[in-house]
Specification:
The complex is a heterodimer of chains A (230) and B (390).
Chain A (H helix, E strand, L loop, with lengths): L1 E2 L4 H7 L2 E2 L2 E7 L5 H13 L4 E6 L4 H11 L8 E5 L15 E3 L6 H18 L5 E6 L1 H7 L2 H17 L3 E7 L5 H8 L4 E8 L2 E7 L9 E6 L2 E5 L1
Parallel strand pairs in A: 3-8, 3-9, 4-5, 4-7, 5-6, 7-8
Antiparallel strand pairs in A: 1-2, 9-10, 10-11, 11-12
Chain B lengths: L8 H4 L9 E6 L6 H13 L3 E6 L4 H10 L11 E5 L2 H4 L7 E2 L6 H14 L4 E5 L2 H8 L1 H18 L2 E7 L5 H10 L3 E9 L3 E11 L8 E7 L3 E12 L6 H8 L2 E7 L2 E12 L2 E7 L7 H8 L4 E7 L6 H10 L7 E6 L9 H8 L7 E3 L8 H14 L2
Parallel strand pairs in B: 1-6, 1-7, 2-3, 2-5, 3-4, 5-6, 10-13, 10-14, 14-15, 15-16
Antiparallel strand pairs in B: 7-8, 8-9, 9-10, 11-12, 12-13
Helix pairs in contact in B: 5-7, 6-7
The chains are: A alpha/beta (230), B alpha/beta (390).
């Protein structure tokens, strides 16, 4: 069981990513990480994968709209969003087929339950055998909970990703955390997608998924495609 | 005793939690176990006692909405439903609650608030912690363990029962062992059945220091509204042709479908029942001999069996007994339904027992499935038998 990112030149360099892989996406603010993680989920959806997205920064409806806006033909019933935002804004929104509400980013127990429920639904009810879990972002969770707490949470769920042969992708803001935090969290991941600011915009590369890091590429986001240059 | 309100758990605990004692729901990550504490809280206050709910990871307004989702209206409980707000301080939000922990990361502040709430109650009640693990994350493992001992001792003074929802994240082994075995009078394991994903949930008693612990594991489902329901994934309904199996399945179920031709089941009946704290999926087999290969397929992994007989048709009883062999039901809990008791010539259950040479430990219960007479009594009997299996 293998996965790819849907970022063509990176995928060619990396080859297939094995099921059970956990990957950190780290980059500076405003570098398009939200789009990148949605695109990774999107390319799974068009390949008949399920996508579970934990959103700590955007209400679930906004995330869902992103997918609906970019492609009306994707199987919307394969998307599950754990919304950690809406209820913290004071809206008593009920769960829907696509969106389950967590009470807050502090409520890691609740977030974990909702992730598990989506995994069960996709595996048991829809018989989907490939699932992508995207957590956007760990930085928000780290604002509410300390490092050991978040580490314990991730320790459990990176393990669940391995058990389910799924793909886990976790976003973290560069420059927002100290080195100890990043080094501690890195232990849990099999590789990284790194983003940095270059001379002509932002650049991207993969680390830990090939014997040597891939070269840095300038990139541009065009709808559901990430176009690499250089 | 303070009842937990969880179906079967109170039976196993000999009535519930003795006043002054403590119970921890030891929940595996990813399992929706916090509902256990909520159900215990609501059950207590709806029975006229006091309840204190210590909110540590959810806004109190949201907590009331969460109770509403289960059909548990906290407004009706008036001032018997009390929230200690140990959340708002964490995000710098205002609180409307009477008891507010200004610094949720300070275990002493939390302790002071909880003690005050306990003192103020007019009688014995229950103190439920929404998430002990969140408190532990905020205040530290050893500090929280010390505080639990203090809270439990204080509860003893006032005869309150203490109930903790604890998610067993990978804390230190000592901490997990302490929570599971030492710090509370009783511990209930709330776990998940997992292979690639968690696809089922169960609870069982790990410890209760006022009794011998029964070695039982109970599957459960959570329904909204309703709460925790003991779940029986498969009950088989079998019996000869035209005994009334499909009618029985439909009479028992909240919703059911049949695959039939001209009223005769040719593949299966499937129904789902939600009744008095129990939920079950019911599978009915065809009765004609030519469908016996399907019957074999349908009967695997059943936890209990109804054998439906037409009480007016003794000639088919042998076929009924044969169907128990085909479904390999011997050894499973079996209830025989003496159906069509309203028809002339219907044999009584005892007459049927003699004709079948059935031992007395197999209940034979009279029923008229067409008007639901006796079907729920039979269900309760079978459920009791299934729950008695170790």
């Amino acid at each position: 069981m293998t996965y790819n990112f849907g970022i063509s030149r990176l995928d060619e360099l990396i080859g297939d990513i094995g099921g059970g892989t956990n990957i950190m996406v780290i980059g500076p603010p405003m570098s398009g990480k939200d789009d990148i993680i949605n695109i990774v989920a999107y390319h799974g959806l068009i390949d008949n994968n399920a996508a579970v997205i934990v959103s700590t920064r955007e209400p679930g409806t906004n995330v869902l709209e992103w997918f609906g806006h970019h492609d009306t033909n994707i199987p919307m019933d394969h998307i599950g969003i754990v919304d950690c935002v809406t209820r913290t804004l004071g809206f008593g929104a009920p769960d829907t087929e696509n969106i389950k509400m967590a009470s807050s980013p502090v409520d890691l127990t609740g977030i974990g339950v909702k992730i598990s429920q989506f995994f069960e639904h996709f595996w048991m009810d829809l018989q989907l055998r490939k699932t992508r879990l995207c957590i956007n972002s760990l930085s928000t969770i780290l604002m509410y909970s300390n490092l050991p707490t978040v580490f314990r949470f991730l320790h459990v769920f990176t393990g669940r990703i391995k058990a389910a042969n799924a793909l886990g992708v976790y976003v973290i803001e560069d420059g927002m955390h100290d080195d100890k935090t990043i080094v501690t969290l890195k232990q849990l991941f099999d590789g990284m997608i790194e983003i940095r600011e270059g001379e002509a915009g932002y650049q991207i590369r993969a680390v830990g998924l090939t014997p040597k890091p891939t070269p840095w590429f300038d990139y541009e986001i065009d709808g559901v495609n990430i176009i690499l240059r250089g | 005793m303070i009842e937990t309100g969880i179906p079967k758990l109170d039976d196993y605990l000999l009535g519930g939690i003795p006043e002054g004692k403590s119970l921890v729901y030891y929940i595996y990550p990813g399992v929706e176990g916090n509902v256990f504490g909520m159900q215990t809280m609501y059950h207590t206050v709806s029975n006229g006692r006091y309840g204190v709910y210590v909110a540590s990871s959810t806004d109190p307004r949201m907590i009331r909405e969460q109770f509403d989702e289960f059909g548990w209206n906290t407004d009706e409980c008036g001032d018997r439903f009390i929230i200690v707000d140990a959340f708002s301080g964490l995000i710098g939000a205002d609180s409307r609650e009477r008891y507010v922990v200004s610094d949720p990361e300070d275990v002493n502040d939390l302790t002071q608030c909880i003690k005050q709430a306990m003192e103020d109650l007019d009688g014995p009640g229950v103190v439920v912690f929404e998430s002990l693990s969140t408190i532990m994350d905020l205040c530290g493992e050893s500090e929280t363990l010390d505080a639990i001992e203090e809270w439990n001792q204080y509860a003893m003074l006032y005869d309150h029962a203490m109930v903790y929802n604890f998610t067993a994240w990978p804390y230190s082994e000592d901490t997990l062992l302490h929570i599971k075995e030492d710090i509370c009078n009783s511990a209930i394991s709330v776990g998940g059945i997992s292979e690639r994903v968690i696809f089922g949930q169960y609870f069982g008693i790990l410890k209760a220091d006022w009794m011998d612990v029964p070695r039982k594991c109970v599957l459960f489902k959570i329904v909204r509204p309703g709460g925790i329901r003991v779940y029986i994934p498969k009950i088989l309904v079998t019996g000869p042709f035209n005994a009334g199996k499909s009618t029985f399945v439909h009479a028992l179920s909240n919703r059911a479908v049949s695959v039939d031709r001209l009223g005769t089941t040719i593949a299966l009946d499937h129904g789902h029942i939600d009744y008095r704290g129990f939920t079950a999926d019911i599978f009915g087999t065809p009765g004609q001999e030519r469908f016996d290969p399907i019957v074999k397929l349908l009967s695997g992994e059943a936890m209990g069996v109804f054998l439906v007989l037409d009480s007016t048709n003794a000639a088919d009883f042998v076929r009924g007994k044969r169907m128990l062999e085909i479904t390999m039901s011997f050894g499973l809990p079996i209830v025989i339904i003496a159906n069509k008791q309203d028809l002339q010539g219907a044999l009584t259950p005892e007459e049927i027992r003699k004709k079948l040479s059935m031992p007395t430990n197999v209940p034979i219960m009279p029923a008229i499935a067409t008007n639901r007479d006796g079907v729920f009594e039979a269900f309760e009997t079978l459920v009791d038998m299934v729950m008695e299996v170790d």
